[in-house]
Design brief:
The protein has twelve helices and seven strands. The protein is an alpha/beta fold and 390 residues long.
Length: 390
């Protein structure tokens, strides 16, 4: 489709217009253009706000519990609640979600309970993954969400492949794959986008551009126009929007889903947001960013405050409602926390199960050695914290 020219032409990124950021609400929660207000009913929007707040409260409790040594690891969602709830609300339940690790709000919106989150973070016998994953690696078959996986970016080509599979089966659903701008630097992301583009896979590549890949700021990650421009390079439609604006996230995701399902093709979504918390409990972000920078995004431009202001302006929410809901939610989550903390850990022998459909001989031998060893030195291991080995 390119034309021929008679001179050497070097196309520079500086000559290409920057992809704009779609926004509906300003930082104070006021609608900029009324035509773009999605028009949620009161109960619907209040429910969305409640899940945003619930995610934040659960984060704070689990983050503090890790600092107390009660769980081994945690990753918060502070500052990114709108990207999760806005996008989850725009999807249909039959759409398959491939998460990265900062999508707790998507799990909660789809019906995953705080108790299920707690069992997973403690690795109890009631954890759906049977304690085989580190904390925040939820698995939600019941809510149509694939298991969180530690290796960075591996879910992206898997999601593209899944989208190609459902294209053969059902023309009215799509796959949504979440990842950060850091994961977009992985080769897996490029392979997945190229595959989805050439095979016309119905998938939404949802990038949470939160400013940092652990300690690496975006200015040190890429020179081009963010992540949305990469979609255009692969021939994929792209939408960039304010990830702290619940309405912009919802409208953009809904439009992208409609395009993907109707035309059976991929769409790249880039949510411009900010990671308020540390990357994880293993990280200290004060080593690479200022306290004032974080404070701004945690107070001036927080997604939760934007929606609360919108609700308050319509007399749909007030300080009394806020206080009551936060108190009730904290009580509920702490109750779930205590229940999970007091639940026995899985039978240690389950570590050998479900690795292979049929256990190979070498694994059987390891299991036998394990049983012999733990029986001989039972006093040296906290077996009482686990379900009985049978």
């Amino acid at each position: 489709r390119a034309s021929c020219v008679e001179a050497v032409v070097s196309t520079q990124s500086t000559g290409v217009p920057t992809i704009p950021i779609y926004r509906v609400l300003n930082s104070q929660g006021k609608v900029i253009n009324p035509n773009h207000d999605p028009g949620f009913e009161k109960d619907d929007l209040v429910d969305m706000y409640k899940v945003m707040v619930k995610t934040s409260i659960m984060d704070r409790i689990l983050y503090q519990s890790q600092r107390q040594g009660r769980i081994s690891f945690y990753m918060t969602n502070f500052g990114e609640e709108a990207t999760q709830i806005g996008s989850a609300r725009a999807l249909k339940f039959k759409d398959v979600v491939f998460p990265q690790y900062r999508e707790a709000g998507v799990f909660l919106w789809r019906g995953f309970t705080p108790l299920e989150c707690m069992h997973q973070c403690f690795g109890t016998s009631k954890d759906h993954g049977k304690g085989k994953q580190m904390p925040v690696h939820y698995t939600g078959q019941r809510v149509n969400i694939q298991t969180v996986s530690s290796p960075l970016g591996t879910q992206i080509p898997q999601a593209a492949g899944h989208a190609y599979a459902i294209k053969q089966q059902d023309k009215d659903r799509c796959v949504v794959c979440y990842f950060g701008e850091g994961a977009a630097s992985e080769g897996d992301c490029h392979s997945a986008m190229n595959m989805a583009a050439t095979l016309d896979c119905p998938i939404l590549f949802f990038c949470r551009n939160n400013g940092y890949a652990i300690s690496t700021a975006t200015k040190d990650q890429y020179r081009g126009d963010g992540i949305a421009s990469r979609g255009i390079g692969y021939g994929i439609p792209a939408i960039r929007f304010d990830g702290n604006d619940l309405f912009a996230v919802y409208n953009a995701t809904r439009a992208a889903r409609e395009l993907s399902v109707t035309e059976q093709r991929p769409v790249v979504l880039e949510a411009m947001t900010y990671r308020v918390g540390h990357h994880s409990t293993s990280d200290d972000s004060t080593a690479y960013r200022s306290v004032d920078e974080v404070k701004h995004w945690d107070t001036v431009d927080t997604p939760i405050n934007r929606i609360r202001n919108y609700l308050a302006a319509r007399n749909w929410w007030d300080d009394v409602s806020e206080k009551e809901f936060r108190s009730e939610t904290r009580t509920e989550i702490l109750r779930s926390f205590r229940e999970a903390e007091n639940t026995k850990l899985p039978n240690p022998l389950q570590i050998f199960d479900e690795v292979y459909e049929e256990m190979p001989r070498n694994l059987q031998e390891q299991r036998e050695v394990f049983v012999e060893h733990t029986n001989k030195y039972a006093d040296n291991y906290p077996l009482g914290n686990h379900e009985k080995m049978e």
